[in-house]
Amino acid sequence: MEGDKEFLRELGLNIKELREAKGLSQQELADQAEVAKSTIQRLEKGKYNPSILILIKINVCLDLKFALLDKI
Known about the structure:
Blueprint: H1 2-21, H2 26-33, H3 37-44, H4 52-61
């Protein structure tokens, strides 16, 4: 359980860093990913366990590759 919390915290920090590197606000990323701003806020704080679909949307908005999609 503690490992899950650490993973979500690291995921959130990585997403925040990538978002900021692209010069996007939380609201801009939320709008592009078609999620609520509160979803991005909670995700970046490590307080939200996103669905795979939300992660894919965020990855697309941040111009990232999603390893699982490379196989499809």
